[in-house]
Amino acid sequence: MPFTIANVFGGTFSSIRKGFIPLLIVTLLLYLGPNLLVTLGLRFGMGVNLGTLAAFQGKALAVTIAASLVMYFLVFVHISTVTEITVLTGTDQPVNLGAVLKNGVVNAIPIFVIYLLCALGWMIGSVFLLIPGFIFGTIFSLVIPVYVAERSGIFKAFGRSRTLTKGRRWGVFGFWCLIVVIFYILMLAVEMPIIMPMLRQAMQAQTTGQSPADFMPPLPMLVLLTIVSSLASVIFLMINGTVYNCLRFEKERYTGLNVEKVFE
Fold this sequence. Notes:
This protein has 264 residues and is mostly helical. The protein has ten helices and no strands.
């Protein structure tokens, strides 16, 4: 399927349907579960909320740092696993969950390095009125799926992303602008009814002399926000993986057999 908006959305929802169980398992195991475990552990064990000032003070500091390091590692494993599941299901290949998880652990550190390089490129581009940053982001938007699917090495993945996006960069750029707008609208629509009551309660807490760091948002709201962020992360990664599938098919007419050889 060539790269079109309809094919990307259709391919993404098809991958969700085909890979629902493995996607659910890796998200619960690597993203949603650890986030909830740390959030609830700090909340009930130390009386603080992750992400607030209180989590970086006193005894909670060491726990927060250790938990954050573990969670970030699991996040990069999650990025690899969701991307690989998307590539496989997008080409009608079976998903070996054990192999996917093993590959995710191996890929975690290289993906972290890729994110650092991308962030550096974006920051340098942003110095020049953002335009070079947008160009950089468009050209190298497929580095993660290329690295995960083709095992090509970090720097070769950057070159491969440049090759796959060549001739389609305006389309890729416009597509991601559309996705960002849609995501922001949906996230506002979903999160604002959750966040606004929390903000009102935080303001009320301040009027009674409580520090904002001492404010404890209702537990159901924290759980809902964690679930929403998990879903957004999965869908975003799957869309990017589907863009990779579409552009690779468009340029190379690759089939499931090609993917099978890559993952052998």
